[in-house]
Structures are given as structure tokens and as C-alpha cells.
Automatic annotation (TrEMBL):
Chain residue ranges for the region called Disordered: 317-346
Keyword line: Endosome, Repeat, WD repeat
Gene (UniProt): gb21931
Biased composition (Polar residues): 322-337
A single BP term in Gene Ontology: TOR signaling
Protein name as catalogued: Target of rapamycin complex subunit LST8
């Protein structure tokens, strides 16, 4: 099976995973996923495999095969798996779950190599660009940094007590981290290296971004520089784009009929893809607020979406730079166990 230049996959509460042609919006492969809903999708850096995080397992599928069966299954979690991602070389995978643990997996043997206790349901996990630290956020409002070399928690902070941290994002160069919570607030820290190479958080900004939950926050990719943006997706049916220089509101994207569960930038920051219960919308950063590539609408509402561009090197992307008028484009993403549309491009 020939691999498309852009891989777009979605997953839904209808217990299916679908692969789409990114430009035409045509579904060319459907995988039945009867065990549970899919909470998150992620594609390996080499574009060979797709990880689907469910309840309570993670299944790995071959992107280039027509087989409906997973290649391997990871089964140590005991509740919803809410986060999944890969090391840049693709040798290991990390995950976070509502069972209160963050785990690291050997991809080949499906064995859990490490387990970190968060003591609360884990909603989000990101890998620091240095590839040596994981940062997790949980339902009780705790943010923890897990030092993989020391095999321990090196830093812990609570921006708001008893307010769930819903999403975390780290700037591509490791200079900044943003945490978004259930009260519509984003907390921004500058990341500093201490004398013992431990990442330290220096408070930089507090942003009241939305009136409702923030379901996803995302910093723009490397090739968007020198401009740097923060996108926030919310239960208030909007997505907002903020300039990181002073955190001035640049644009509010409206027109979504439901909660916006996810968003993702294209590799050059020219496009932003947003995901709702009604489908995925592609919007041009420098253009208006209306979708430029149409809406990707599966037969049942998509819960999670993921896209990987051939030109990328393991980073998440959203759409190709070329604007395809009148066609459907999409990206990749993931989300929580509630009903929504996750998008993520890598």
C-alpha cells in the first residue's frame, strides 16, 4: 500500500478509525475499533505506525497495511489513556492515564519500562524538546516534570488548587511552557535550566483566555518564527490565537457549533485546523475567520484526528502550505474521553 505524502486519520465514538486523503477528503481506509472509544491518536516519527489510546489500552496499527488488526497492544493501564506520544527516534512511547500514572513503553516488546505516580487522573503529557523530560498535568491541578535520567519527579507546581489542568504545550525550542485549565485560564512560564540541568519554571504571564473550559492549548511550530503564537480551543465554541509577544489577542475563530476539542498548526504556521463534534475546519492564519478548505465530516462525528506531513521530522503539523481551494484538508490531534473532535498533525 503506497504511503500518501500526508497521513490523516480520525477516530470516533462510533468505534472506528478512518484514514483520509488530506486534499480530497475521501476516506480510503476504515479500521473497526470495538473495544472502546478512542481518546487520542498519534503517529510515529517515521510515519509507519498509528497509536490509538483507548480504555484502558493502547493499540498500534500499521499505517501502510490494509490489515484491520493492531500490530501490538499495550495493556498495563487500568483506566482511560488520555495522552500518548513518541520519542523523536521512535524507540519508545509515553502515555498518561486516568489511572493516575505516566508510563514509558518499549515499542517492540510492549512492556512498560517505567511508571510514574501522579496521584490523580492524568489529562495531558508532553515531551520536552530535550527528549529527557516529560511534563504532565492532572485533574487535581498538579503539573509535574519527570526527569527521565534521574527517573524521578524533579519539579512540581500547582497553578490553581483543585482546578484541572486540561492541556500542556511546550515551545519548540524549550523556552516556554503553557498550561490551560478548566477555568479558561492559561499559565505561562519561561523554562530555565538550573545548575544541575533541572528545568525550572519562571512565571511569565497569566492569561484569562476563555469563559469556558480550555480543551487544548498549542504553541506554534519552529517554521512559524519569528512570529510566535498560542492557540486556545474552548468549550465556548471558539478558538483564539494570541501573539506570544505580550499575549495580545490576534484573532478569534468563530462559527463552531459545538465545543472545540482540538487544534493544530501547519508546519509553517500558515494554517490552523480545529476539531469539533461536527468535523474538522481548516483556516488560513493570515486570511479571514472562515474555513478555507471545507469541513471534514465522517459519517459519525470524529473524536480524534491526526495527520503527518512527509516534510516534517517528528514534529506535529496541520496542513500543507499550498492552499487547496474548495477541498478538504486536515491534520492530527487527540483529546479527552469526553465527546469532541481531536486534531493533530505530525
Amino acid at each position: 500500500m503506497a504511503q500518501p505524502s500526508v497521513i490523516l486519520a480520525t477516530a470516533s465514538y462510533d468505534h472506528t478509525i478512518r484514514f483520509w486523503e488530506a486534499k480530497s477528503g475521501r476516506c480510503y481506509r476504515t479500521i473497526q475499533y470495538p473495544d472502546s472509544q478512542v481518546n487520542r491518536l498519534e503517529i510515529t516519527p517515521d510515519k509507519r505506525f498509528l497509536a490509538a489510546a483507548g480504555n484502558p489500552h493502547i493499540r498500534l496499527f500499521d499505517v501502510n497495511s490494509n490489515s484491520p488488526q493492531p500490530v501490538i497492544s499495550y495493556d498495563s493501564h487500568t483506566s482511560n489513556v488520555m495522552a500518548v506520544g513518541f520519542h523523536c527516534d521512535g524507540n519508545w512511547m509515553y502515555s498518561g492515564s486516568e489511572d493516575g500514572t505516566v508510563r514509558i513503553w518499549d515499542l517492540r516488546t510492549a512492556t512498560c519500562q517505567r511508571e510514574y505516580e501522579s496521584r490523580a487522573a492524568v489529562n495531558t503529557v508532553v515531551l520536552h524538546p530535550n527528549q529527557k523530560e516529560l511534563i504532565s498535568g492532572d485533574q487535581n491541578g498538579n503539573i509535574r516534570v519527570w526527569d527521565l535520567a534521574a527517573n524521578s519527579c524533579s519539579c512540581e507546581l500547582v497553578p490553581e488548587v483543585d482546578t484541572a489542568v486540561r492541556s500542556l504545550t511546550v515551545m519548540w525550542d524549550g523556552s516556554m511552557v503553557v498550561a490551560a485549565n478548566n477555568r479558561g485560564t492559561c499559565y505561562v512560564w519561561r523554562l530555565l535550566k538550573g545548575t544541575q540541568t533541572i528545568t525550572c519554571f519562571e512565571p511569565l504571564h497569566k492569561l484569562q483566555a476563555h469563559d469556558g473550559y480550555i480543551l487544548k492549548c498549542l504553541l506554534s511550530p519552529e517554521f512559524c518564527d519569528p512570529n510566535r503564537y498560542l492557540a486556545t480551543a474552548s468549550s465556548d465554541h471558539t478558538v483564539k490565537i494570541w501573539n506570544v509577544d505580550g499575549f495580545k489577542l490576534e484573532k478569534t475563530l468563530v462559527g463552531h457549533q459545538r465545543w472545540v476539542w482540538d487544534c493544530v498548526f501547519s508546519v509553517d504556521g500558515a494554517y490552523l485546523i480545529t476539531g469539533t463534534l461536527k468535523g474538522a475546519h481548516v483556516r488560513e492564519q493570515e486570511g479571514g475567520d472562515e474555513p478555507v478548505g471545507g469541513v471534514l465530516e465522517p459519517e459519525a462525528a470524529a473524536e480524534r484526528q491526526v495527520v503527518r506531513d512527509a516534510a516534517t521530522t517528528g514534529r506535529h503539523v496541520v496542513a500543507q502550505r499550498t492552499r487547496v481551494t474548495g477541498s478538504k484538508q486536515a491534520a492530527t490531534s487527540s483529546k479527552t474521553s469526553r465527546s469532541g473532535d481531536d486534531i493533530v498533525i505530525s
